[in-house]
Specification:
258 residues; mainly alpha
């Protein structure tokens, strides 16, 4: 289905933009292709690394039995609804950032990202709270096992505290990508994932024996730290671009990390 949709979208794009795809010569466009690859590769590698990271976490959880694994799976289904809301806001935010940056309105771009972060964090946290109060009904769609319902309820409670940092991290990470700053956010994200969150996950989950609840403790710390550092990076980039407008000779380059 994804392949079919991709083909249809390419056909629609070619028709609307009146492109003749067979006449495109990539050799003549190599500098542009290389630049696009340079912008996209860090984000793609971040998604791949995150998938491997999740597999390792499941390995930690699996040692505690089926209840922990199943509870995590059901709660992740609930979290996916929250992620949809955050990503919808993020995509709209990226479009608006592109308009503001293209028009040279960096102050408005900065304010737009902050506004979107607050809205996404408030919306995701509110929905997480609602899911927690409806946890018995939601998880009850999949199982009536008392131990799974109880553990899932605890995870949904912790998810409320996870969402503000998670939403802020997603919005600001994609905001930085939208203005061409890719490498540094990915390095920060991966550094915290592997250097902080994974050791904490092992410590809370395996060493202290909290199981899947310990994974949620580590995720809360990870996403909160990422949100703080992404906020600092966004503020720093905004100051750099403001200074570039005031001093065009000194600021004649692209954003660091682009």
């Amino acid at each position: 289905m994804r392949t079919v949709v991709a083909i249809v979208l390419v056909c629609v794009l070619a028709k609307v933009l009146r492109l003749r795809l067979w006449s495109v010569r990539l050799a003549s466009q190599w500098p542009l292709v290389r630049r696009l690859f340079g912008l996209s590769f860090p984000s793609v590698s971040d998604y791949i690394a995150y998938g491997v990271y999740q597999l390792i976490l499941v390995g930690f959880i699996a040692a505690f039995g089926v209840t922990d694994v199943v509870s995590r799976a059901y709660v992740m289904i609930a979290v996916s609804f929250l992620t949809l809301v955050i990503m919808a806001i993020s995509q709209g935010n990226e479009v608006l950032l592109g308009y503001h940056q293209g028009a040279g309105r960096m102050g408005q771009a900065h304010a737009q990202a902050v506004r979107s972060t607050v809205i996404a964090a408030a919306a995701a946290t509110s929905l997480a709270t609602l899911l927690y109060f409806l946890s018995d009904r939601f998880i009850g769609l999949f199982t009536q096992q008392a131990d799974v319902l109880d553990l899932s309820r605890r995870l949904l409670w912790l998810t409320i505290f996870l969402q503000p940092g998670f939403a802020a991290n997603i919005i600001l990470f994609h905001s930085l990508r939208a203005v061409g700053d890719v490498r540094i956010p990915v390095l920060v994200s991966q550094g915290l994932t592997w250097g902080l969150s994974l050791p904490l996950a092992w410590l809370f989950c395996v060493h202290y024996g909290h199981g899947v609840v310990g994974i949620w403790y580590a995720l809360i710390i990870e996403e909160t730290m990422k949100a703080i550092l992404m906020s600092l990076r966004w503020t720093q980039l905004n100051r750099q671009q403001t200074a570039s407008r005031l001093d065009p000779v000194e600021g004649a380059g692209e954003p660091e990390g682009a």
